[in-house]
Every structure is written in structure tokens, then in C-alpha cells.
Amino acid sequence: MQTAHPEGAKTLSVETFGLRHDALSPLETLAQSVSTIAPSTTPPLTIPLVFALAGQGTAIAYLIAMGLMVLVGLCIAAFARESSSPGSLYVYSRISLPPVFSALTAWALFFAYITTASAVIGGFVNFAQVFLAGWSHYVPSSLLAAFAAAAAIFVAYRDVKVSARMMLYIEAFSVCLIAVVIALTLLHRGFHPDLAQFRLRAMHPRGIGLGVMLAIFSFVGFESATTLGSEAREPLRTIPRAVIQSALLAGVFFVVCGYGEVLGFRGVSTTLDQSAAPLRLLATQAGVGLLGPIIDAGVLISMFAATLACVIAASRVLLLMAHHGLAHSRLTQTNTTHETPGAASVLAGVLAFLPAGALALRGVSGADIYGWMGTLAVYGFLTAYGLVAVALLFHRIRQRRLTFGTVLLTTAATLAMLLAMAANLYPVPPAPLRYFPYLYAAYLAAALLWLAVARRPGASTAS
């Protein structure tokens, strides 16, 4: 089914592929991107890691990362105003780049969503253990990981509208609690600016650079509203807005939280990067210690919301990949009752669980699963973002609508992604992070090999 753009502009199409059409409001569409970002998970988990690299430049690192993501967001939004499909970034590259590069975009994006889902399953395990420890209970990490994945599969399989509403409510609750603690921290410390966080001469550029690259992980998935192209109302209008709004709203939240956490830990014996529960400590300092356990519970639920959002996004990308011969043809099927990609949802959830469950069985902590799988996810997102920026340049050339602004935007976005990728490769990081580029390269090589075999004369993706 195809629906023309109501304004008759230069449109490619709005494709449904059997999914529920016109089901999600603009707010519910925004909820998909916001929940995949999972902004409430950044203050307790990612900001301390960025502080370990950038120190007093943590807020600046997040400000720079926000600028880079807005650049990519503008490229994505330019496509989203013309085309709407569950394949999102893959479709954008497919209409502008040679098949091998569009296939790389698809596989990179699918990899990114799956590994992000696996990462936040690890985060779920981490906060579940923290929460249960307060009640003197212990549940095996592998069992917690299985529960998070199974619940996400169930909700994603049943109803995308219910899924979107659930994600919106969960994330809004968690963000509000964290915002209260940060606001009270700033109020407790006074309204004068913390000048130490603005003295660039006292900061190490290399540390800020590494901090920026890690801060990017806080934003990845902000484009996932594009995977709801056939389910959102007025998708050619609401999806571009959702992409830009999610990057800006999350970015402002991260910058303020980074500034507040660094300020709140000034003079404390435990440093921010060494604190197991930074928001609990800040809540106690601000005189609202009772909020600490509530925040832990909120972040725990937010981790589940992020898992759900990633499974939803991955399943829709996989659905379109199957339609275009990049995955098994059985994955083209949608559930006639719920109008969701049932088989793709189940497969995406299982694939997200496998690495998290395996690592948990080997005794790896939830925090390490979050960090390791999150690092792997960044490679996939940077690949997809960079290729989409290049695709926009060629798309405008073919349309004969190329402007200096487009050249400047696409060049800046592409260079930013290349520099981000390089920063993850050199200097060589410690083990096991040093092996991740090779794992990612092996994954892409295997995907391209499968594609070459599947597309040989007489071969079939259904086999």
C-alpha cells in the first residue's frame, strides 16, 4: 500500500507493508525516538563514564555531541520529509547509493539496534540487582536478562500503539525524577556558575574528544522514529520533527545533567566516575534521599522501555530488509491480528538476548554488558549515519536541488562520523574494547558474503 504525500511535494512514498497505518500520534511517534535514546539511563551510567575521560569538560563534551547529532538529524529529516517507510535510514541510502552501500546501511542499522537492545538489557540487569540488593534478594543475572527480552518481545508483538504509550509514560516518569534531583542539586549549590567547567585552558583536548565519542552513545537511536513511517499519522511531517526534537531535548537534558552531576560531586570524597549510584548520593545531599530508591526503580523500568524501543525499531528494519532480499523471506510476514511484524519482533528480541544472556552466564556484570555492547552499537550507528549523510548529497544532485547549504551540511556530518569512528580506533583502547572493531568488521563481511551468495543466479532468500 502506498499513500501519496498530501501536499503533493517531491515524495517517494509512504509504505505500510501490512503494518497498522495512521495509528500513532505525533507524541507517540516522538516517544519511539525518546525511548530508544533512553535519556534517564545516561545520568546514572553514561555521564560518569564520560567524566572519567573529559573530567570538568563533561558538559562541554555533551554540548559538542549534541551539535554533531543535530547535524546528522538534519540530514535524516531532509529525507524523512520525502519518504516514509519502516526501513528508515536503509531506504534513504537505497534511493541514492549503489546497492552494496545501501545494504551496508541496512545491516549496520540492524546491528546497531540489536546491540543497543542487548546493552540496555545489561543496564536492566545492573539496576535490577541494585534494586533487589536493597530488599536482600538475589536473582541470577541471566534470568533477569531473559525476563527483559521476553517482556519486550511480548509487548512489541502485541500492539505498537500500546508499546508507544507505555514507553512515553515510563520515560517521562524517570526523566522527571532525575530532573528534580538535578534541580535540587543546583539549588543547593547556589545559582552562581561553576567556572571550573568553563575553563577550556585547564582541560585536556584529548580527554574532551574521547568524552564526546562516548557521549554520542547517549544519543544513538534518536532517529528510530523513522522506523514507524507506515504507522505514524502524517509521517512526512511528524517524523522529521520527532528526529530533531528528540536530539535537541535529549541534548539539553544531558548537558544540564552533566553540569549538575559534576558540580554536585565537587568536594565529595567519592568521585563521580567511582560512584556506584551517583543519583542516590546527589538525592541524599539535596535532602531528598527517599527519591534514591525510586530513581533506581524508574531507571530500571526505563531500561526495559529502551529494550522494547530497540526491538520495535530492529523488527521494522528487518521487515523491510526481508522485502528487499536482505533477509529471509519469511520475515516479510506481519501478524494479521495485531498488524505487527511478529516473526521479525521475535527474532530481534532473541538476537538481543543472546549476547547479554551469554555474558551474564559467564559472570559479566550488567554494567560491563551495557558498556561493551553499547560500544559495539556505536560502530553500527556511525556507519549508518555517515552513509545517510553521503546519500543526501547524491540525492540532491540527482534531483538537481543541490545547494551550498546541503554541501556544507553533508560534508560536516560525514566528517564528524569519520572522526568519531577514528577516535574509537586510535589510540588503541584496552581489552576487550580493542577487539570490537574486528568483530564489527567480521559481521559486515559475513553480511555481504551472505548477500553475494543469496543473489547468485538461481539462489533464493527463502532458502
Please tell me about this protein's structure.
The longest helix has 35 residues, at 99-133. The chain has a two-stranded parallel ribbon. It is globular. It contains 15 helices and 2 strands. It is mainly alpha-helical. The protein has a single domain (25-421), classed as Amino acid/polyamine transporter I (Up-down Bundle), CATH 1.20.1740.10. Helix content is 68%, strand content 1%.
Task: Offer a concise description of the structure.
Helix content is 68%, strand content 1%.
How much helix, percentage-wise, in residues? 55-70%
Strand order of the largest sheet: 1-2
Structural class, judged by helices and strands? Answer: mainly alpha
| CATH third-level topology | Amino acid/polyamine transporter I
Radius of gyration: 21 Å
- Whole-Å distance between the termini? 26 Å
Order of helices and strands: EHHHEHHHHHHHHHHHH
Q: State the oligomer.
A: single chain
Question: How many strand segments?
Answer: 2
How would you sum up the global shape? globular
Name the average pLDDT. Answer: 84
Query: Helix count?
Result: 15
Top CATH class: Mainly Alpha
Q: How much of the polypeptide forms β-strand, as a percent range?
A: under 5%
User: What is the CATH architecture descriptor?
Assistant: Up-down Bundle
The main β sheet shows up as: 2 strands, parallel
Number of domains: 1
